[in-house]
Specification:
- The chain is an all-beta fold.
- The protein is about 0% helix and about 55% strand.
- It has a domain of about 120 residues: Methylamine Dehydrogenase, Chain H, CATH 2.130.10.10.
- The radius of gyration is 19 Å and the shape is globular.
- The mean pLDDT is about 95.
Length: about 325
């Protein structure tokens, strides 16, 4: 049976994961908590609005309500990267080689190690994501997604689809860009020819997604089950039905996290329950019984033995499935 080490936090948990293999939790009240021999806490901001794990998993990038963008290491050393007084940093992203991006209002900034570059948009920037190799990054906005090249005087690419797009991700192979929309749907583009991908039918907004270990599946929240779209074929999920895993008639999946090695997903629900579900046969294992709040974040360690989780109510912890 899995074992759980609990950690009660003072606020909504925005991120639960691992820095240098040590459990870390980031909360909306501005605190970053590290679990080791002793619990350590640093107040990085006066309220955190966004957080991203660095690609090397040695630091987290945070954007605050105080207008600061910070990088915090596994030693809880917090370094300010940039500051914009009286601005609310609404989105941050982490790329390769410690590159990072952040945004507020209609402007995004990105630093690939050669200094900050500024990118203005006609509408508010809702989310950011780096491509796998980090040479370009995506901006989710109203009526679509904009792709920018870093370090090059190249015209951006506008991927258009009417509606409000509030989150964006690249597929691990860099072939697709997917956005989450206010209209309870996903929209995507195949970058080779800008072919549209439409993934609809959700009863709620998709606020969590996770690519499988080899990038062949995209697991999503927003339904009474984990909705998992196939991306193995050249046309991605076009014309194909998704898997529906861990269906519960009286609950909604609020968070998903694919295992780092196997085609298995952890699905967290709005009542705090967490299930571990295999793609091949939909076999389920109960990892956590219902708690006090909806699961808001989950991350596996590199070996796939421990799952860090956090909830909207501040309940958090580490589930060890190797026990």
């Amino acid at each position: 049976m899995p074992t759980i080490a609990h950690c009660d936090l003072d606020s909504y948990c925005l991120f639960a994961g691992f820095l240098d293999d040590q459990p870390v939790f980031v909360t909306a009240n501005g605190e970053i908590t590290l679990l080791g021999d002793k619990q350590k806490v640093v107040e990085a901001h006066q309220g955190i609005a966004s957080v991203a794990l660095s690609r090397d998993k040695k630091s987290v990038i945070t954007g605050g309500e105080d207008g600061r963008i910070c990088r915090t290491s596994s030693a809880l050393q917090c370094r300010e990267l940039a500051r914009h007084e009286k601005k609310w940093i609404t989105s941050v992203a982490a790329g390769p080689d410690n590159s990072y991006a952040f945004a507020f209002s209609r402007t995004a900034w990105a630093d690939d190690g050669k200094g900050l570059q500024e990118f203005d948009h006609e509408r508010s920037v809702e989310d950011l994501a780096f491509a796998p190799k980090g040479l370009r990054f995506a901006v989710a906005r109203y009526n679509g997604v904009t792709l920018h090249w870093l370090g090059a005087d190249t015209k951006p690419t506008d991927l258009t689809w009417k509606g409000a797009h509030f989150a964006v991700t690249f597929s691990p192979d860099g072939r697709y860009v997917i956005s989450s929309m206010q209209e309870n749907a996903l929209h995507g583009w195949r970058l080779s020819d800008e072919q549209h991908l439409r993934m609809s039918g959700y009863p709620a907004k998709v606020k969590s997604w996770s690519w499988s270990a080899k990038g062949k599946w995209l697991a999503t929240s927003g339904a009474p089950a984990a909705i998992v779209w196939p991306f193995q074929a050249k046309d991605g999920p076009m014309g194909k039905a998704p898997l529906e895993l861990g269906t519960r008639a009286d609950a909604m999946v609020t968070c998903v996290c694919c295992h780092p090695e196997e085609d298995i997903v952890a699905a967290g629900f709005n009542d705090g329950m967490i299930l571990f579900i295999r793609f091949a046969d939909a076999k389920e294992v109960l990892l956590r019984r219902p708690g006090k709040g909806a699961i808001s974040t989950m991350t596996w360690d590199d070996k796939g033995y421990r799952l860090a989780f956090g909830s909207e109510s501040g309940e958090a912890g580490i589930i060890d499935i190797s026990a």
